[in-house]
Specification:
There is one protein chain. This protein is mostly helical. The protein has 2 domains: about 90 residues, Rna Polymerase Sigma Factor, Chain: A; about 80 residues, Winged helix-like DNA-binding domain superfamily/Winged helix DNA-binding domain (Arc Repressor Mutant, subunit A), CATH 1.10.10.10. The chain is about 75% helix and about 0% strand.
Length: about 180
């Protein structure tokens, strides 16, 4: 039995492609904590972070024969980021059921607020992928432009461009909706 802890990621990936369960276990032990920390930092829920990381490693195993990975850590980090973003987007799209509403009387203002919230989430989901990611990191997760640039491996100028584009597009798309709502009052 080989001592996999002494192998490089590249060697482990080759063994993984050949069906090496021990190599997979070594990669899992090598990177699980870092990937969990990354997911937990953004989701702030242990169970969801664990699920995200488990899905990523399951995907790695299932696609092991076809994946062309040059940097395993970068691949894992990117996969975790996209799954976290996807989970956050699902949260934003989730419809609010009557059971989730508070016991306080529901007013027109409350209904309008929830309607606007859902509309905003839909508009955000319509943004181009990179633009949506940048906007989500900036507005939902509170990342600075420098942090976003580092996470997505783009320039700070590109981050600024995506945020400006998202704000303009959201403003145009939501302006008519807001105007019609306010005209009803």
């Amino acid at each position: 039995m080989a001592v996999y802890s002494l192998h490089t990621d590249e060697q482990l990936l080759q063994s993984l492609r050949d069906g090496g369960e021990e190599a997979y276990t070594e990669l899992y032990e090598r990177y699980w904590k870092r990937m969990f920390a990354m997911a937990f930092l953004r989701l702030e829920q242990r169970e969801q972070a664990e699920d995200v990381v488990q899905e990523v490693f399951t995907s790695l195993w299932q696609k092991r024969e076809e994946l062309q990975i040059s940097s395993l850590e970068a691949w894992l980090a990117t996969a975790v980021k996209y799954r976290v973003i996807s989970l956050i987007n699902r949260r934003l799209r989730r419809e609010i059921s009557t059971e989730e509403l508070p016991d306080t009387p529901v007013t027109d203002v409350t209904i309008d607020y929830h309607f606007l919230e859902r509309q905003l989430a839909q508009e955000i989901n319509q943004l181009p992928e990179k633009c949506r990611l940048v906007f989500t990191y900036s507005r939902e997760l509170g990342y600075s432009n420098k942090e976003i640039a580092g996470e997505l491996q783009i320039s700070e100028k590109a981050v600024e461009k995506h945020i400006t584009h998202a704000r303009k597009k959201l403003a145009v798309n939501l302006r008519s909706l807001l105007h019609s709502l306010f005209s009803l009052w």
